[in-house]
TrEMBL record:
<keyword id="KW-0067">ATP-binding</keyword>
<dbReference type="InterPro" id="IPR036640">
    <property type="entry name" value="ABC1_TM_sf"/>
</dbReference>
<feature type="transmembrane region" description="Helical">
    <location>
        <begin position="414"/>
        <end position="434"/>
    </location>
</feature>
<keyword id="KW-1000">Mitochondrion outer membrane</keyword>
<dbReference type="GO" id="GO:0032475">
    <property type="term" value="P:otolith formation"/>
</dbReference>
<feature type="transmembrane region" description="Helical">
    <location>
        <begin position="261"/>
        <end position="288"/>
    </location>
</feature>
<keyword id="KW-1278">Translocase</keyword>
<feature type="transmembrane region" description="Helical">
    <location>
        <begin position="385"/>
        <end position="408"/>
    </location>
</feature>
<feature type="domain" description="ABC transporter">
    <location>
        <begin position="592"/>
        <end position="826"/>
    </location>
</feature>
<feature type="transmembrane region" description="Helical">
    <location>
        <begin position="110"/>
        <end position="128"/>
    </location>
</feature>
<feature type="transmembrane region" description="Helical">
    <location>
        <begin position="80"/>
        <end position="98"/>
    </location>
</feature>
<dbReference type="InterPro" id="IPR027417">
    <property type="entry name" value="P-loop_NTPase"/>
</dbReference>
<feature type="transmembrane region" description="Helical">
    <location>
        <begin position="187"/>
        <end position="204"/>
    </location>
</feature>
<dbReference type="GO" id="GO:0005524">
    <property type="term" value="F:ATP binding"/>
</dbReference>
<dbReference type="Pfam" id="PF16185">
    <property type="entry name" value="MTABC_N"/>
</dbReference>
<dbReference type="GO" id="GO:0016887">
    <property type="term" value="F:ATP hydrolysis activity"/>
</dbReference>
<keyword id="KW-0967">Endosome</keyword>
Length: 861
């Protein structure tokens, strides 16, 4: 065993550390000894990198698999991570070279620190590349490994530990000579670099956002189905901060009220009041300290009274603890009301307009309950998001920074370090735990949507539920959705309780450490009693908003989650769009042309194939054929609910895809097969055809539609409420209201889609006569099931399997003996059988009404 003499040991220590220093001395000259600090930091980082990193690499090599290149996301931030890591590695090498080339003393700890740091960061870069290219197939987590995140976190914390030596002449803070200036520049580079790596590492930009097993097992059908979801499917583990730039870009128009000078001035005034609050929060504990010191030192009554008066005034302006209910805060909240209302109105109006601009395809497949809940939560979340970010998050962060600077300046670095460590731990754990809780909140929203969707769907189909005695089934199904919602709700609330307890432990620990240290300095005579009061007041005042910081963060995250579905609605593409330079339809005569039109709702299943026909001005063309042959689709294409895949549709020689939709639809009136009315009175439902129409014009349209007399029999007449979707009216009455609405619009082109299908024979004849008058000299396209209603059409098109099978007038088609003739014969036979059935029923009824025969009659017979 080799032993060193005390003299030799001293020589070794001096060659390893600087002159007049030893590694055994931890605290010298009001700071940490550089020899001890750099030895400890480099040793811990290298040990961590090699120990955890080696285990990490072994697992990835043994149990992992190489990722397919197509699943590795392209990210500039990942390249930025690599560049910073390499720059830090070069910096450690450069510092050793610079110290060696300087010709001065080169202590051993500098060489050790440089070599260990280079090795540690080289291993960290290797880990970063391994995670980029290989993955544990069964790994269900997201983001970087704990080894890499812990390495970055400790490296960043080590650089922050240098602040403790703020007053030490052995460190570089004084910038007194060239050496200290270079060391400070190198430290600044390390501080910024390690901080960026840690915070960017929380996002893990170079890694897939979803578990690799899901990516490799996802097939085209899953992609297609997920793409058809109305409100989108958000991954359970996806961070709500993903796509943050896009979300903020959508929010920007609502954050600044463009075009309104008054509201812009209110926003600026609110920001000024916010700055005033920050200043008040600093001076309140200072004046409280002055009061205690004045009373302790026996100052005059005039001095004490003045200090108390100023303190009470500041406290009045500040309010309870952190400006929660102070004069300035209340004034700011009052001024912000108008801005908040502006934001709420703009969001709702834009979203409502966007929904109306979406295609019929989207609206036919939507879930009304989901959409309504998403709109409701999304619009309310924008207000809370803006309010909490501007008036809670930013002020809290500002208060934290101000407090750290204040404690370091007027107390000492230990108090600043205590506050800083508590803040970092508090904010880091709050963010990590809250991100973990995200999936519970998102699942709770989904279950809430399901419950409300089931309830709305069941209530809209109330009659169907009654028809099949399915009340118990519907109630049971709704209860199941509530139970699933409550399971997710329990997970959300339980994880919230865990987060609150963690925050309380951190806050209590920081308050205890700071109070003990401050009390110790008071007993030593270094601080006055007022300083202890100042510390206690300031730290409690600081912890009050910090205690709410977790709530602010959760509310902001909840707002992002609640807005996700609303953002999905905003991102929903308009299927039918006007071209950039689209003009108005120039209506002349009303000539309609279909030329080689192809159309399909779903790719691969064509509804219309090579359909061509012409409707001359003033003519009536009837479309007949089996159900599902594409008759109603032709009506929808002419009204441009969809874009065709091939061919062209023209009106007066103008391609309808080249004109504005509003001008096209202004010239077309439609009476649909399934009439839906607004939950309003009859008068306003008819007036919807032309909003500016007078009551007299509404009644004239109702007379033409043969419904005026029926309306007048109702107790409230035209003020009769029709109920949800017009359920209070019969099918025939709803259809006549729709016909009256179209008559009031007075369009040049009329589309009738089974317009009289829900009417009895006599009413149908009356309406046919009315429609004949309305359609006179107007281009008309009729979809009919009853062939007797279109005998007088100028041209009849028989549609079969998406093609025009036959065309001609009624008599011509009967002579052909084709599909139309067969349909006509079948309907005639059906009518004859119905007529004979009615006659037999009348005969049986009359027999029942005959008096019974007598016995003499029987024998005589």
């Amino acid at each position: 065993m080799i032993c060193l003499s005390p003299a030799a040991a001293m020589v070794f220590m001096q060659s390893y550390c600087e002159a007049n220093s030893s590694i055994s001395h931890t605290w010298v000259d009001e700071g940490i000894a550089p020899c001890f600090y750099f030895t400890l930091v480099s040793t811990i980082l290298l040990t961590l990198a090699f120990f955890l990193g080696t285990i990490h690499c072994i697992f990835y090599q043994k149990y992992g698999t190489a990722m397919e290149p197509k699943f590795i996301p392209r990210s500039r931030l990942y390249g930025f991570q690599q560049a910073i890591s390499i720059l830090l590695l070069i910096q450690f090498l450069g510092e050793m070279v610079w110290r060696a080339a300087g010709g001065g003393e080169l202590p051993g700890y500098v060489v050790l620190y440089g070599c260990f740091s280079v090795l540690g960061w080289a291993w960290a870069i290797a880990l970063l590349r391994v995670e980029r290219r290989r993955v544990l197939v069964m790994d269900r987590t997201r983001g970087h490994s704990a080894a890499l995140l812990l390495f970055w976190a400790l490296a960043f914390s080590a650089e922050n530990l240098a602040f403790v030596s703020w007053y030490s002449p052995r460190w570089w803070w004084g910038l007194e000579n060239n050496q200290q200036q270079v060391q400070f520049a190198l430290w600044l580079m390390r501080y910024i670099g390690t901080g960026l790596l840690f915070f960017i590492g929380l996002k893990a930009p170079g890694l897939p956002r979803r578990p690799y097993m899901l990516l490799i097992n996802e097939d085209e059908r899953d992609v297609e189905n997920s793409g058809q979801s109305l409100l989108g499917t958000t991954e359970e583990n996806q961070s709500t901060w993903q796509g943050f730039r896009k979300k903020v870009h959508l929010l920007l128009p609502y954050m600044w009220p463009r075009g309104n000078i008054f509201l812009q001035l209110l926003v600026l005034l609110c920001l000024v009041l916010l700055g005033v609050e920050r200043a008040i929060n600093v001076f309140v504990p200072i004046y409280y300290k002055n009061i205690v010191n004045d009373l302790t030192d026996g100052s005059s009554w005039r001095t004490v009274a003045t200090t108390v008066f100023i303190y009470v005034l500041l406290k009045f302006l500040q309010g309870g603890g952190a400006g929660a209910s102070g004069f300035v805060s209340n004034m700011r909240s009052f001024l912000w009301i108008r801005v908040q209302q502006f934001t709420n109105r703009v969001v709702q109006v834009r979203l409502f307009a966007h929904l109306h601009s979406l295609s019929l395809r989207w609206h036919l497949s939507r879930k009304t309950g989901d959409v309504l809940r998403s709109i409701d939560r999304g619009t309310s979340s924008i207000n809370s998001l803006l309010s909490y970010i501007v008036f809670s998050i930013f002020p809290t962060i500002a208060d934290i920074v101000i407090s750290i600077i204040y404690f370091i300046t007027y107390f000492n670095a230990w108090f600043g370090l205590i506050v800083f460590i508590c803040m970092v731990l508090y904010l880091t754990l709050t963010i990590i735990i809250t991100e973990w809780r995200t999936k519970f909140r998102r699942d709770m929203n989904q279950q809430d949507n399901n419950a409300k969707s089931k309830a709305v769907d069941s209530l809209l189909n109330f009659e169907t539920v009654k028809y099949y005695n399915a009340e118990n089934y519907e109630v049971s199904r709704f209860e199941d959705t509530i139970l699933k919602y409550q399971v997710s709700e329990w997970k959300t609330q339980a994880s919230l309780a865990f987060l609150n307890q963690t925050q309380n432990i951190i806050i209590g620990s920081g308050l205890l450490a700071g109070s003990l240290l401050c009390a110790y300095f008071v007993t030593e005579g270094k601080f006055q009693v007022g300083d202890f009061v100042l510390f206690g007041t300031y730290i409690i005042q600081l912890y009050t908003p910090l205690n709410w910081f977790g709530t602010y963060y959760r509310i902001i995250q909840k707002s992002f989650i609640d807005m996700e579905n609303m953002f999905t609605l905003f991102e929903e593409e308009e299927e039918v769009k006007d071209e950039v330079n689209a003009g108005n339809l120039l209506y002349k005569l009303g000539k309609v042309e279909f030329e080689n039109v192809y159309f399909s709702y779903i790719s691969g299943k064509e509804i219309l194939q090579d359909v061509s026909f012409t409707v001359l001005p003033g003519q009536t063309v009837a479309l007949v054929g089996p159900s599902g042959s594409g008759k109603s689709t032709i009506i929808r294409l002419l009204f441009r609910f969809y874009n065709i895949q091939g061919g062209c549709i023209r009106i007066d020689g103008q391609d309808i895809s080249k004109v504005k939709q509003t001008s096209l639809r202004a010239h077309i009136g439609v009476v649909p097969q399934d009439t839906v009315l607004f939950n309003d009175n009859i008068r306003d439902n008819i007036r919807y055809g032309r909003i500016t129409a007078s009551d007299q014009e509404v009644e004239e349209a109702a007379i033409a539609a043969d419904i005026h007399d029926k309306i007048m029999t109702f107790p409230e007449g035209y003020d009769t409420q029709v109920g949800e979707r017009g359920l209070k009216l019969s099918g025939g009455e709803k259809q006549r209201v729709a016909i009256a609405r179209t008559i009031l619009k007075a369009p040049q082109i009329i589309l009738l889609d089974e317009a009289t299908s829900a009417l009895d024979t006599q009413t149908e004849r009356n309406i046919q006569a009315s429609l004949a008058k309305v359609c006179a000299n107007r281009t008309t396209v009729v979809v009919a099931h009853r062939l007797s209603t279109i005998i007088g059409a100028d041209q009849i098109l028989v549609i079969n399997e998406g093609r025009i099978a036959e065309r001609g007038r009624h008599e011509e088609l009967l002579l052909k003996g084709g599909l139309y003739a067969d349909m006509w014969m079948q309907q005639q036979q059906t009518q004859d059988s119905d007529s004979s059935s009615d006659t037999e029923a009348k005969d049986r009824s009359s027999e029942k009404l005959q008096p019974p025969s007598t016995s003499s009659d029987h024998h005589g017979h």
